[in-house]
Amino acid sequence: MILAAAVGDVVGSIYEGRPTKSTDFALVDARARFTDDTVLTMATAEAVLSDGDYAEMYRHFARRYPHAGYGGNFRRWFVSDAAGPYDSFGNGSAMRVSPVGWAFDTTEKVLEQAERSAACTHNHPEGIKGAQATALAIFRARNGTAVEDIASELTERFGYDLSRSAKEIRPGYSFDVTCQGSVPEAIIAFLEGRTVEDAVKIAVSLGGDSDTQACIGGGIAQAHDPRIPAELEKHVRERMPADLLDINDRFCDRFCRT
Questions:
Q1: Which end of the chain, C or N, has fewer beta carbons within 10 A?
Q2: Residue 96 belongs to a domain with what CATH number?
Q3: pLDDT tens across 188-207, in order?
């Protein structure tokens, strides 16, 4: 259910800082690894499962996996028990939010919980918007909303320009870790790809923050079409530590609706 976020992270990990502008690459690659996207997605899932505090879970799991590739501001935050939010509009708020889109059953609750999950660190309006847009896209997709209607609602509600194609974005696009500069592009990868496999490939091929954009785009796509190729799922599971896999599987056991 939330494994596709990890799939995007693992597949995209190879291309972070070494961008490709093509979808012609292997999804299964021995060099791939999980990063902070997977760690914090599973931390969100654990917070939901245990009705716990998001900030507490993010600190706990980041400290358990301190070398997963966190940004500098987040790293300074998680090592201090006293640190508060730091007005970030980075895409970290969106990369970790996918469990919220699956676990809650009303628009209002999804948006509220997405904001809560973001605001402990990414309390800038754009940071909150990125998390809310991602979670709402998952919520709509898992409830059968047409892809075109998801695009229309996200455009109207959040002001994202989702009219562009990946082909139009790709030539001039570069590494961008802001929500406003990467979340719309990740959503477009889902809108065009629709399956986990295709959404991840398109997200990576934009040549930006590949693991995070594939995490976001793939996570949304799984809500629309839950299939993950068996070889790819096996590849990702083999790279995830047992405790994170356990969270994923417990989350699916509790919230799986398909």
A1: C
A2: 1.10.4080.10
A3: 999 999 999 999 999 999 99
